[in-house]
UniProtKB/TrEMBL annotation, chain A:
Phylogenetic classification of the source organism: Eukaryota, Fungi, Dikarya, Ascomycota, Pezizomycotina
SUPFAM superfamilies per UniProt: WD40 repeat-like
UniProt keyword annotations, A-Z: Protein transport, Transport
GO biological process, one term: vacuole fusion, non-autophagic
Name by which UniProt lists this protein: Probable vacuolar protein sorting-associated protein 16 homolog
Its job: Essential for vacuolar protein sorting. Required for vacuole biogenesis, stability and to maintain vacuole morphology.
GO molecular function, one term: actin binding
Sequence ranges assigned to domain Vps16 C-terminal in this UniProt record: 504-819
TrEMBL record, chain B:
Superkingdom of the source species: Eukaryota
InterPro entries, sorted: Sec-1-like_dom1, Sec-1-like_dom3a, Sec1-like, Sec1-like_dom2, Sec1-like_sf, VPS33_dom3b
GO terms for biological process, alphabetical: vesicle-mediated transport
Protein's UniProt name: Vacuolar protein sorting-associated protein 33A
Renumbered residue ranges of the record's region Disordered: 282-302, 544-574
Polar residues: bias regions: 287-298, 559-571
Family assignment from sequence similarity: Belongs to the STXBP/unc-18/SEC1 family.
PANTHER family: VESICLE PROTEIN SORTING-ASSOCIATED (PTHR11679)
Length: 826, 674
């Protein structure tokens, strides 16, 4: 039974603890001094690359080959990536354990899993000419410092878009770091450059001098929460200031001559300085632990957000501030109820009645005691103490009447997972906080990346997580690692294993097969993909365009259909293209619809191919509408007619087009003769305008030429005459005997124009209307007497009486006279 | 007739908040000031949930519409907000980025926000223009936007054109996506019913998406593991009823006679706003400057009027038949007058004054809204009193009531053509006749075509061709449709309108506009087929022949607490299968069960105990657009259902449609002018 305080050290009034994680990490003949060592966040993998700046002792050809070696924290080699692609300037990790390698010419390789598949991209912005000096990484991106001090930032890896930040001043950069976007007020990355005596803050828009005087600075580092900055001055001082440069929080003078090799934050409240084989720790408010620890071999610092991993050839350790619950439980002489509860369980094991005394003492705070024990258990790496603490908690909660055990149960589950992955074979020494931040899903992903499918599946099942990803990854790996001869077997094996698993995407497996250069296997696997849409891109890649088109149509996603069509058109000839779409109405519709807007020629070919005469002709008519001058318009119209030259059954269509052409010619003449605008008008409008201009003869000619009915012509004439207030002509018309549209419209139109006198002329002609209507017409014209006469003629006494009630004065007398006459007549 | 609280179950405010948050978050992520370039058709939609001043707070300096070569390069940041499914817009974006890059002196940062999703075609097109790597690309997942608490719209302006002229099913897919989102939120629709070929397509797509969703859900790392256990049937939504616009085209050509419908007919409404001449609203404008919230001046001569439930009066007017609007306005005006007089009483105590002051803001906004609606109503009156309107309506009603005499109808239409009434009016009538009669007689059609191109110009050869393509104006063919006994059994290719009129009571002779008993009030006699179909499912009693024999089908509806209302959720089309089968297009009836039988069962048990009192909703989805008159009719149905059985309706649609919009899709706007 180890002492829980075995590796505790007091710095100021705080405790720090060092947890030995693994021993005998690396080969004995590996000298880490000559290597750059970087670790992925959340206790992830470690990448080791030969430091090209250092002179090596010659060790034979074997060691001269450059490679990037990826190890677990326990020193198990996960992957060796041979390297021959230029001078490596920086190696870094993202939080999803993506390895990034930046070479001096600005090429970046992004290795998504730990297996050596990479996506390259280029920094641009002059990286090639000036060379990359160094890079600083954060969880989701990085910034590269170029030879001319320019800074290029990359903020996402799925679609990297290197962006040039504001131009920094010239001068030697003695140290630099960055504040990740999530911790800045502008929500974009800020870079801190130490040049000369001061520090500049640079973001996308501006470079600002913070006006420090104490430089030059050898080291600069931002705390994990972005609140503080630690600086190491040339004269051996360590400063801690707030990241807005407003407050100076502490200053410490180290008495060491040689500047430290590295300066990193340990959590958010201590700074670690590392020399070759020793580390110093500077706690809050300047409390210091010089020579905190010394090691047998060269030390590398791998900072995490809640502590720091210390890696040497021999050991891997985790240094962190002792977490609050742990301190409360284990601190010597701690009066905290949880400490007493822990003691109680020891008493209980010794069968001492003191156990009960203990419980009684802390009875009022038993809740808190249980809670602290559970939380402290999470912070323990030693399985013995985890058990001891959980036992205490369990004992405590058995005494409590009411206790929600969720936290307790969850912690036992979490600890099982943590202990499993911490095991040296796996080598993921996650702290509890790291696990919570990483999330179980991403932990499983990390295991999958390490091809530890068994553990990944077990953990997923234990935590009720979906397992499809694991199966897919396994299948991909199977495809990649299998030989190309037993194609059928592989497909069968994969299908057998994956079928029945919910949500498995065969598309991803098929893509892996395709990427491995095995299109046949890819197509075969793709057949098992349930989502039609997902099959499309890959089907296009393997050259199965028409199947891709069918699948796209099946998916109902027109975007996909259109996408396939665009690809298809580029690839095959026009006639093949048309043949492919002709049997698929939706595809034709989409081609037609998109061509309408951008590719009229394609449309013409399509209509011609399909023998769609009317559509083809209409397309030419549409072109005629946009033609620049009248001759071209007429040409297009002629072409539109010609489309039908050897077909029957479109007579009315042809006639309309011929009329259109004829009308244009007429209008051209009218424009010349009458010096008025006609082109663009319809037949009816042309007639109407001619009448308005007084050109009756011409209007009749147009009527005859275009076979405009008399009815229509009468309407046109009436409205045209009214609109030019040609009362004389209208009066003349009223003498006519017959009208194709009757006389009522004349009355209405003229009345509408306000001429009651002329309007009245038509009333007597409206013989087909009932008397009441005619009476009303007279009234509308203000001729009450006439209205009366109309009523009298029809012997309509009621109407007369109504009229009388409406009017006064002379007219009233008149109406009364008529009423009397009517009564007399009776 | 206030907007019924149908929306209670579907939280529309949530949708608005989420959309706003998402957009602002995307804008915030782009540092510094930016110019925003927005697709014109999106601008109004965006305006439904975020104000320009808010955009300004988030760094938007200037706003542009996406058109050719109009981008200003004053800001380093240029943000495009464009529909990712619109190939034309994508190309314009690519061209503009290229243009700005080559012409501007400063180094720009381009961002593109695709609505509602980033498409493969957009990637391809940007790549072809060599600008894919130039832009920061993100998505704004905008699906249904509430126009009102009970109306969700995709606001796809082009959906009618795409579906019926171009035969492009993009909006079917977009609808399926949006409905899937609702299902994810509220659970599986336990039953999907619908009518029309596109409705069938949509229902199939929903089923397919559901099975694919299970694959997607578990391969999405951000998805909480609970979601991956699959969807279970909803406890709130009972039915999804899909009405394919194609099954009921006549309704859109009938003149809408509700107040909101007429506003749309006369002035046009888009995104809950209408634009009218300032002169229409008269001198009200200068006197009511505080009305800024309701009306905002646009250009000198136009004013925008907001038409939604923020207005004091509008909710009570919108769905009423226009004939009854006058009295309501009168009454309100008189009441306000009385209130105003009581306010101006000379002898008032401090208490009185206090209450007067507290009432003042409400009073002012209400009197402002009375003024606005009175002016609007007067303007509509001018329209409805016109001779053209009278004649058009007469023809229309004759056609809808059936049994009209073709020659008199044709005579009237010929007159209208000769009198040069707007082309749209003529085409509406012809399309109405064609849709109701499954085409026009070949000779009549040729005649009308000739008259139209002569009266309105030969460019309309194209217009007429478009109408034919859309199936709106066709020659009657003997071998098509119900006359043909061997017509496909999968679904009718034409509707037997006479049978439908008889079976579903599409014409009601006595309509009481002021106190309606039946949905037919919205067209003063014609009951829209689309809404009757909904009633076939949800309000069978309103259509039962036994009740209809009294000649007053609506009477039954008001006392509708008949047993069938309780079981309507499970009986589907019964007993109207026969009537429905004689209507064009496929009939859809799908029952959706949960993937996990246990979970569904558990939900079912819970539902039977908990949700009995909770709101139960049927979603009526109009594929291809809905008219305001239909919305009014559905609200009427919803109100009756709520009274009888506590059920309500939520209306969802691809967009608002009207006869004018439908015709405008076809009309060729250019002329033979050089």
């Amino acid at each position: 039974m180890s002492n829980p305080r075995e590796h505790w050290s007091q710095v100021g009034d705080k405790f720090y603890r060092k947890t030995p994680l693994y021993t005998d990490v690396f080969d004995e003949d590996l000298d880490l001094e000559n290597y750059v060592v970087t670790g992925a966040p959340y206790s992830g993998a470690v990448a080791i690359v030969r430091n090209e700046d250092k002179v090596h002792s010659y060790r034979g050809t074997h060691a001269a080959k450059t490679s990037i070696d990826i190890y677990s924290c326990a020193g198990k080699l996960i992957r060796q990536i041979p390297w021959n692609a230029g001078l490596i300037k920086a190696v870094g990790w993202s939080e999803d354990e993506r390895l990034l390698v930046v070479t001096s010419d600005g090429t970046v390789r992004s290795y998504t899993d730990l297996q050596g598949d990479f996506v390259p991209f280029n920094l641009g912005h002059g990286a090639e000419d000036f060379g990359v000096q160094a890079c600083k990484f954060w969880s989701r991106g990085f910034v590269a410092l170029l030879g001319n001090n320019n800074l290029v930032s990359v903020t996402r890896y799925d679609e990297p878009r290197p962006q040039l930040l504001a131009a920094p001043p010239q001068g030697d950069v003695t140290a630099w770091t960055l504040i990740p976007p999530e911790h800045t007020s502008s929500r974009s990355v800020e870079v801190l450059l130490a040049i000369d005596k001061t520090v500049y803050v640079i973001d996308a828009v501006e470079a600002e001098d913070r006006g420090l005087e104490a430089g030059p600075f050898r080291h600069i580092s931002t705390s994990p929460n972005g609140d503080f900055i630690a600086l190491y001055t040339d004269d051996g001082k360590v400063w801690v200031i707030s990241s807005d440069f407003q407050d100076r929080l502490s200053e410490h003078e180290s008495k060491v001559r040689t500047p430290p090799k590295d300066l990193q934050w340990c959590g958010n409240n201590a700074v670690v300085l590392a020399w070759e084989d020793e580390i110093h720790l500077i706690g809050p408010s300047g409390s210091v632990f010089d020579k905190f620890d010394t090691y047998d071999s060269f030390v590398h610092l791998l900072p995490d957000f809640d502590g720091i991993r210390i890696l040497t050839r021999d050991v891997c350790e985790f240094l962190q501030k002792v977490p609050e619950p742990t301190e409360q439980v284990f601190r010597l002489g701690s009066p905290h109820p949880s400490a007493i509860l822990l003691d109680a369980i020891e008493q209980l094991e010794n069968k001492s009645p003191k156990a009960d005394d203990n419980i009684q003492t802390i009875r009022p705070q038993l809740d808190e005691a249980v809670d602290f024990c559970v939380r402290a258990a999470g912070q323990q790496y030693s399985i013995h103490w985890q058990k001891q603490l959980l036992k205490s908690a369990s004992f405590g909660k058995s005494v409590l009447d009411l206790y929600d055990s969720d936290d307790f149960v969850e912690m036992t589950e979490t600890l099982r997972v943590l202990n499993a992955v911490r095991f040296h074979e796996t080598g993921l020494p996650l702290s509890y906080e790291q696990y919570i931040r990483l999330t179980p899903e991403r932990l499983v992903q990390r295991l999958v990346n390490r091809q530890d499918y068994l553990l990944a599946t077990k953990i997923s099942e234990f935590l009720h997580l979906p397992v499809d990803k694991i199966y897919i990854n396994w299948a991909r790996q199977k495809v990649i690692s299998s030989s190309s001869t037993d194609q059928d077997n592989i497909c069968q094996e994969i299908v057998r294993k994956l079928e029945g698993t919910r949500g498995v995407s065969f598309e991803e497996v098929a893509r892996a097969a395709y990427d491995e250069g095995r299109p046949k296997l890819a197509t075969e696997l793709l057949g098992h993909e349930p989502r039609a849409g997902k099959q499309v891109p890959l089907l296009l890649s393997v050259g199965e365009e028409s199947i891709a088109l069918d699948k796209a149509i099946e998916s109902g996603d027109t975007d996909l259909v259109f996408y396939v069509l665009l690809n298809l058109k580029k690839k095959v000839g026009l006639s093949d293209f048309f043949r492919t779409i002709s049997t698929r109405p939706i595809a034709s519709a989409i081609v037609e619809s998109s061509a309408q807007e951008q590719d009229q020629d394609l449309l013409k070919d399509l209509y011609y191919q399909d023998d769609r005469l009317v559509d083809g002709s209409n397309l030419l008519l549409s072109e005629a509408l946009s033609a620049a001058d009248i001759d071209r318009t007429v040409d297009k119209l002629k072409m539109a007619i010609k489309v039908f030259h050897d077909s029957k059954g479109h007579a009315s269509h042809v006639a309309a087009l011929q009329d259109a052409q004829k009308l244009l010619r007429f209008q051209e003449t009218f424009e010349k003769d009458l010096n008025e605008q006609f082109i663009g008008m319809s037949v009816n409008e042309t007639i109407s305008k001619l009448i308005r201009l007084g050109n009756m003869k011409r209007s009749h000619k147009v009527q005859a030429e275009f076979k405009v009915t008399d009815k229509t012509y009468s309407w046109l004439r009436l409205r045209a005459l009214v609109s030019r207030r040609d009362w004389r002509e209208l009066e003349e018309l009223s003498k006519g005997r017959k009208s194709p549209i009757g006389w009522e419209p004349y009355f209405n139109e003229v009345l509408g124009a306000g001429n009651t006198k002329i309007a009245a002329l038509y009333i007597s002609k409206c013989t087909s209307l009932p008397v009441a209507d005619r009476i009303e017409m007279w009234v509308k014209c203000g001729m009450i007497a006439k209205a009366g006469e109309e009523a009298l003629k029809a012997k309509d006494k009621n109407s007369l009486e109504e009229l009388r009630s409406q009017v006064t004065g002379e007219a009233a007398g008149e109406i009364q006279r008529m009423i009397n006459q009517l009564q007399k007549g009776r | 007739m206030a907007v019924p609280p149908a929306g209670r179950a579907i939280n529309t405010q949530d949708i608005i908040d989420k959309a706003r948050r998402q957009l602002l978050h995307l804008l915030e992520a782009i540092r510094g000031k930016k110019n925003l370039v927005i697709e014109r058709s999106l601008a109004g939609t965006i305006g439904l949930f975020v104000k320009f001043s808010t955009l300004q707070e988030y760094g938007v300096d200037k706003l542009f519409f996406l058109e050719n070569h109009n981008v200003d390069s004053t800001q380093r940041n240029l943000v495009f907000l464009v529909r990712g499914e619109n190939a034309k817009a994508i190309r314009t974006v690519a061209e503009q980025i290229r243009l700005v890059r080559s012409e501007s002196k400063i180094d720009h940062d381009f961002s593109i926000i695709w609505v509602p999703r980033r498409t493969m075609v957009s990637n391809l097109m940007l790549e072809e223009h060599g600008v894919l790597g130039e832009a920061n690309i993100s998505e704004l997942d905008l699906q249904f936007i509430p126009l009102e608490k009970d109306v969700l719209s995709l606001e796809l302006d082009n959906s009618f054109q795409d579906l019926y002229l171009r035969k492009d099913p993009t909006s079917v897919f977009a609808s399926a996506k949006a409905l899937m989102l609702l299902q994810k939120q509220y659970g599986l629709f336990p039953r999907i019913l619908g009518k029309g070929d596109n409705a069938k397509r949509l229902a199939d797509l929903l089923q397919r998406m559901r099975s694919e969703e299970e694959v997607n859900a578990s391969s999405d790392p951000n998805n909480a593991y609970l979601a991956s256990f699959g969807l279970t049937p909803s406890s709130i939504v009972e039915n999804l009823i899909i009405i394919d616009r194609e099954t009921d085209l006549p309704t859109i050509f009938a003149t809408q006679l509700t107040y909101e419908g007429l506003l749309d007919e006369v002035f046009g409404i888009s995104n809950n706003q209408t634009e009218v001449d300032a002169s229409v609203l008269g001198p009200a404008a200068p006197q009511q400057p505080q009305n800024g919230s309701t009306t905002t001046p646009v250009a000198a001569s136009k004013r925008k009027v907001q038409l939604d439930n923020t207005d004091k009066l509008f909710p009570s007017l919108r769905d009423a038949n226009f004939a009854t609007i006058g009295p309501v306005l009168n009454r309100t005006a008189r009441r306000l007058q009385a209130e105003s007089e009581s306010m101006h009483k000379p002898d008032q105590s401090i208490q009185d004054l206090k209450s007067v002051v507290s009432k003042l803001p409400g009073f002012q906004s209400e009197s402002g809204s009375v003024k606005i609606h009175t002016s609007l109503a007067e303007e509509i009156m001018k329209f409805t009193r016109s001779d053209t309107f009278r004649r058009t309506l007469e023809v229309e009603q004759n056609l809808l009531a059936g049994g009209s005499d073709a020659s008199s109808v044709h005579g009237s239409i010929e007159d209208l053509i000769a009198r040069a009434v707007p082309l749209e009016t003529v085409l509406r009538l012809l399309c109405l006749e064609s849709c109701l009669g499954n085409g026009l007689r070949q000779r009549d059609l040729e005649d009308f075509k000739r008259q139209i191109v002569q009266a309105y110009g030969y460019q309309h050869v194209l217009t007429l061709a478009n109408l034919e393509k859309m199936g709106l104006l066709l020659p009657r063919e003997g071998h098509r449709g119900y006359l043909n006994p061997i017509a496909g059994s999968a679904g009718q290719t034409a509707t037997d309108w006479n049978a439908a009129r008889r079976n579903l009571n599409l014409w009601v002779d006595e309509v009481q506009e002021a106190d309606p008993e039946d949905i037919a009030y919205v067209f003063s006699g014609y009951a829209p087929l689309s809404v009757r179909l909904v009633q076939c499912i949800l309000q069978k009693s309103a259509l039962q022949p036994s009740n209809a024999s009294s000649g007053r089908p609506g009477a039954a509806a008001t006392s509708a607490a008949t047993p069938d209302s309780r079981t309507s959720g499970t009986t589907g089309w019964k007993p109207f299968e026969d009537a429905v089968s004689r209507i064009k297009g496929a009939t859809v009836d799908v029952v959706q069960k949960g993937a996990d039988a246990d979970a569904s069962h558990a939900r079912q048990t819970l539902r039977s105990t908990v949700a009995r009192e909770g709101p139960r909703v049927s979603i009526v989805f109009f594929l291809g657009g809905v008219t305001y008159a239909e919305i009014a009719a559905l609200r009427f149905v919803s109100e009756q259902l709520e009274r009888s059985s506590g059920r309500t309706l939520v209306i969802a649609t691809t967009g608002i449609v009207s006869g004018r919009r439908a015709i405008n899709v076809a009309v060729e706007k250019r002329s033979l002018k050089t």
